Amino acid sequence: MEAAIGAASGLIGTVLNQLSDEFIQAYVASSELGLNARKIKDDLRFTQGLLHEAQRRGVSDNPGLKGLVQQLNTKANAAEDALDELHYFIIQDQIDGTKYAEPDLGDGLHSHARHGCHAVLHVVGNWLNCFSCLPMQDDGAESTNVISKSYNTINLDSSNDSPLDKLQFERVAMSKKIKSVIEEMHSLCDPVSQLLNLTPDQSNTTSVNLNRPMMGSTSVENKLYGRSAIFEQTIKDMTSGTYHSETLSILPIVGPGGIGKTTFTQHLYNDRRIEEHFTVRVWVCVSTDFDVLKLTQQIHSCIPVAEKEEINIVSGTTNLDQLQKSIANRLKSKRFLLVLDDVWKCDSDYEWNSLVAPFTKGEAKGSMVLVTTRFPKIEERINKGISPIKLQGLDPQEFFEFFQACVFGENKPNQQYSELLDIGKEIAQKLKCSPLAAKTVARLLKKHLSWEHWREVLENNEWQNQTNNDDIMPALKISYDYLPFHLKQCFSYFSLFPEDHRFKVIDINHFWIALGIIHSSYENKNYLEELVDNGFLVIEVNDLEGQCYAMHDLLHELSRSVSSQDCTNISSFSFSANEISQSIRHLAITIDDRYDENFKQEMAKLKSRIHIRDLRTLMIFRGYNEWIDEILKDTFSDIESIRVLFIPVNSTESLPKKFSKLLHLRYLKITSPKYCEVSLPSTLPIFYHLIFLDLQDWKGSSDLPKYFSRLVNLRHFIAGSKLHSNVPEVGKIERLEELKEFHVKKESVGFELEELGKLKELRGRLVVFNLEKVATKGEANKANLAFKTNLKVLGLVWGPKDPNCVTEPFADLDDDVADGLQPHDNLRVLGIRGHGGASPPSWLCCDMPMRYLEWLGFEGVSWGTLPPFGQLQYLKRLHLKRIAKVCLIGPDSGTGRNQSFMHLKEVVISDMPLLERWIVEPNCHLFPVLETIKCSDCPNLLSLPFFPECSVRCTQGIHCPNLHRLEITECPKLFVSPIPPAPALKYIKIEDTHRSVTFDGEAHWDWGVIFGGDENVLNLIGYIGALAFHNMGNVGSLICRHVSITSFTDLQKVTFPRELTSYEGSGMKSIKFIKCENLTVDGFDPLITAVSVKELWIMNGENYPGSIAADLLSEVARRTKQLPAGSFQLEKLAVNSISAVLVAPVCSHLAATLHTLSAALDERVESFTEEEEQALQLLASLQTLEFWNCQGLPCLPQGLHTLPSLSSLSVSHCPEIRSLPMGGLPTSIREIKVDSCSAKLHKLVRKLKRRNPELKVDA
């Protein structure tokens, strides 16, 4: 009921906003309609006020009122559609310079209409002149075909192009429609108002907290399932660890409803170790009533009386000060534990601090307050720097044990229930590891321990409909009931998206705005944060997508439940149309399974069951499929009121029949499959209300329809750069906020630089190409870049997009052109490429105005000096590439200031043939946060400030203390030895001929080269000379390619005379030697057989007469009995001699650990001996076996069928193999890859696939 009232109130608000438009107001008051617009608005405001009051009162059980409100909803929707349609034609008039939608007011009222017209001009922009180039129908043309709709279709013809279909305004039909729907809506206001006035106020009798069960400290569950690790750690922290030495620690325990927070805390509270550790223990159930006085009274009553305390003075008192003093006195020398269970609210820091104030006065150490809550906002308020315990669902295996215990008791079910347990596992998977969900379902299943009953529960999701307070959905819904209405409305629409969907802020922002739920991005961000604070969303961050929001599966089920009258998501072909409410306005389809004939029948039923024409949302979350999309196209052929449309297509024929009539559309997302030659719909430009156009997953043609710039309300164009750069006359879309690229094209109309000047709302990123075509500074000034305050990233490029097409910088026709392109001071990222002037733009010289730049890049410019980038205190990344004339980076670049480079993280210098030095003043600081240095193709470079002399380092401290990555390529004169101390270094790559690299290991420093983190790679390529290392204990991966090393002993040379093996717990996990000539086995043992090494590659070059792998592994075979316990336990082994591996001592040693074996470039193997076949059978853990480029190998091992774990077999470039093993393949095989082998082998593998459809074959 509340949702219906809220929706009606919102719709009336929308209609009021529409009626406030002066032109629409004039039309409503015109002689054709004769309506009293002012009285209608007053009555609507009165009704809206009553609806707000009804929400406040908590009106819920009045069926008559519910019916009237539903009717009011329907009529308000119709009124909104009618007025929105009128507004559409007002916009079209402004674009085309016509007067079709001008009201017939008579002479006396004509000026008022004109005033309304000018008001609309102010809103949508002056498009009269902008579109004067478009061919229009004669203004005096009258429609002779009046139909029931308020529009027809006409064409905008062009002499050389296909016509643009345009909707034609039908005055009589529009007038009748508006008058009818407004009168009908208006007629419902009085009865709704009267009934509301008669309905008693229930606001004081209905409260969420009445539905909250009061929980004590005694658990009804004798055993705690699935939390043993975190339980034991918490006990340890409370009794002897983290919290033991603190006076008072406050530990929040956070998680969604039904996850087991209270049960976990009850078991903590009653654990013997906790009882013995804390002298006083108090448990208080808080729920939604966070009253400091009441809570203090409850706590006080549970604490033993202190000696000589006068009980009568404080007993029953309401004086907070006396109660707090008494508590502090009673606990003065005692270690205590206070549990505040199920905290739902705490409105201020003051409230919280008032409650805990008496507990901070104790003398004993180790006292604690545990707070359980489902709301992250509560945790943030009370948290004082302690990491909370965040409870999630149980481990799947432990959850199933708990599930069984809920159904059968703590005794495990006997054999007679084995059939039920199979169904039980399927049911358990649906419960998302929620303990309360398990209890809810268990109560249902225990009623009948029969296969039929359990199957019915599984298929019908009956557990979701249980309504007891201790069932899962009511437990979750109580959180929903506690939300304010605006958050309830926002939450309900999440039901339309697929489970496990990751929401970007911008995506949900567009959706809510398109439906009119919110009106600004700022408002949206606040709502998302509120939903996070209330536990309905969680924030996730990953490298690929950045920050996004996710919703727990059970909360997604809740959103589907509470929105079922308005929203539905068809997520299975086996859905039933009869289960979908007839009143739905928002529909999503997220089918992933295979097509079912039932789907076609049910979709036909759905079409006749619901009002397809009135749908506001249609989102199809699946790729294009011909059969399914034909069904969908037929089902949704009559959609008209759509605001949000997500649709996959492979041609314009895939679109709904009335696609061109969707004049209410605000948000359109079209996707197409790869390699599909499909063009965007030609009618796209007539969606004048369109705010969001998402073509991010559009793989079709990058040509935009003609007249695209008629989309005058478009704000967000989510698409690739190529589509952005193809918008002609983009300046007409004045509200556009996104334009990734703009290409100046003097040869094409609508691509002049002045188009950018009209885009006042532009934000984010913009790259402008072909600036050499701009003739004068005056022309450059028209871009108005200095006024684009929200632009954060700017690229200025002289020349085309592809830098490979440019060999020399472009000289400006006017040397001052670049001066006219000064951006706003708010800019964060600036890149300039191809500028051919002798010096940088004037706004980059002297005092740089863009003080907050974080990224600066220059490429292919012809300047002799660089701008003073040392002035940029917040600079994080500096890229200098292909700058031919710069010889020195020095004080002239402003790099001598003390504040220079305080935030610099990355420096890239590339292809600067004359550059010799980068000089900084002696007092310049030492690049404290620099992480990455990349320097390449600078043949005359002698020094960089990152590599000072050792004497300088000793006096100033460590340079680049945070350096992670160092890459130097083809800089033969650059002095980098010894490499400076860098404790955080993870990756070094130095590629040069005749280069000797030494890692400094002087006793004064004793720091070494420490490799850690994700990459952990030491990559040695093309070294000639000695290698010296100090402290290789954390090296994770060593790769040597084309390195001249005489023996493995060289790799153990260190500045101090000790061996690598002396470093216990070495982190070396991967070692690869590729084409390293003259390698011997000297010193092999301590390096290769280290405990940590899990991956070994040994591939010698063509000039080596034997096999290094054979030599090394033969030594291992001789010494397997002497190897230390746990050593040489490889998981991955790649060699160029399979015979060297297949010897019994080696295979026996690797049997338990080796899961991947690769033989590559093995020119020696001709067959497998009996001994080798027997040795292969010892590799019981082998999962993947690969043969690559073994030209002489005639067959595969015949004993492959005996390998119990083998799941993947790969054979590539082995032309002599013409058969599969005689014994066949093991039953464990899941995948076979065959590439560039004999035709016979390919045929055999494909035949095997036909016999075993589940087998994955790539042949």
UniProtKB/TrEMBL annotation:
Ranges of residues in domain Disease resistance protein winged helix: 496-558
Pfam families registered for this protein in UniProt: LRR_R13L1-DRL21, NB-ARC, Rx_N, WHD_DRP
One MF annotation (Gene Ontology) recorded for this entry: ADP binding
Domain (NB-ARC): residue spans on this chain: 244-410
SUPFAM superfamilies xref list: L domain-like, P-loop containing nucleoside triphosphate hydrolases, RNI-like
Record InterPro entries: Apaf_helical (IPR042197), LRR_dom_sf (IPR032675), LRR_R13L1-DRL21 (IPR056789), NB-ARC (IPR002182), P-loop_NTPase (IPR027417), Rx_N (IPR041118), WH-like_DNA-bd_sf (IPR036388), WHD_DRP (IPR058922)
Assigned keywords, A-Z: ATP-binding, Leucine-rich repeat, Nucleotide-binding, Plant defense, Repeat
Family from the record: Belongs to the disease resistance NB-LRR family.
UniProt-recorded name of the protein: NB-ARC domain-containing protein
Organism: Triticum turgidum subsp. durum (Durum wheat)
